[in-house]
Amino acid sequence: MASRRCLGTVTLTLTRHDSAVFSSTPSLQLPPPPPPLPSPSPSPPKTLNHRRLYTLPLLSKPSHILCNRQPAWPQHPRHFSSHSGDENDDEEEEEDEDENDDDDEEMGEGSDTENVSASNRVYSAEEKEREAAAIGYKVVGPLQPSDRVFKPLEPVFAVVQIGSHQFKVSNGDCVYTERLKFCEVNDKLILNRVLLLGSTCQTIIGRPTLPDAAVHAVVEEHALDAKVIIFKKKRRKNYRRTKGHRQELTRLRITDIEGIEKPEMPEVGKSEKAASEKPQKVAVAT
């Protein structure tokens, strides 16, 4: 519009000042000026329909852009500080530990059920003998009132293995072992896994056991050991577990050791008398 106005002013100035020059020379005449361009007529102001104003949707973008708009993907949470990530990591670790604890509890329940099922299992005589031999003993039978199994102390010792433990025993000793199956109180046992025999005059070593040796014992009691407290803790994790355990034990009384020559014990009374007697002086005549 500004360029058009400038052209119009130039043509007007030429016609005013140079009209005399061009009128004197009829050959030099300018073409008539172009007609002025029509100015755009102002449009009347539009009146808004207040009734339809509230029904029209407020569109911030053109309709063709809204029609071609792609579906928005779900936005993932973004963390702009390290503390939020650490908290989430701690929460995830706590959840994992809770799951592990639940798994441990489930495993413990499963082990309890397995122990109950094993205790309720019925064994045959051959299975009992086989398992007892694997542990290292043999059940002979109950102790009768007429049996005289307890003997005076003898200078003989033996090293026996019961399960995974080894004991040095002699006649009349008392030994605590883990709970032995298939035996009751006052049952006679033979401990057949003897590793070593010894006395004052000889020593016999097995490779690894002695086939001809045996240690006789009697079951005196099935008892429980002192309670042991198991406490577990993980710092900054709110994890604390307290459990107690009492190990089942069996008390055995050793009655006899076989497989080695037993030296004769000197009588206590005779030795004292011999020590107390003094040589008498004999008078010799000269």
Largest sheet: 5 strands, antiparallel
Quaternary state of this entry equals: single chain
Tally the helices: 7
Mean pLDDT: 76
Secondary structure category: alpha+beta
H-E order:
HHHHHHEEEEEEEEEEEH
Helical content class: 25-40%
Q: For the terminal residues, how far apart are their CA atoms? A: 181 Å
What does this structure look like?
- The model has no long low-confidence stretch (mean pLDDT 76).
- It is rod-shaped and about 185 Å long.
- The protein has 286 residues and is α+β, with helices and mostly antiparallel strands.
- It has seven helices and eleven strands.
- Strand 2 (156-162) and strand 3 form a beta hairpin.
Walk me through the topology.
Layout: H1 2-17, H2 19-24, H3 50-53, H4 63-67, H5 82-119, H6 125-135, E1 138-142, E2 156-162, E3 165-170, E4 174-178, E5 187-191, E6 194-199, E7 203-205, E8 214-224, E9 228-234, E10 239-245, E11 248-258, H7 268-276
Salient structural properties:
286 residues, alpha+beta, 31% helix
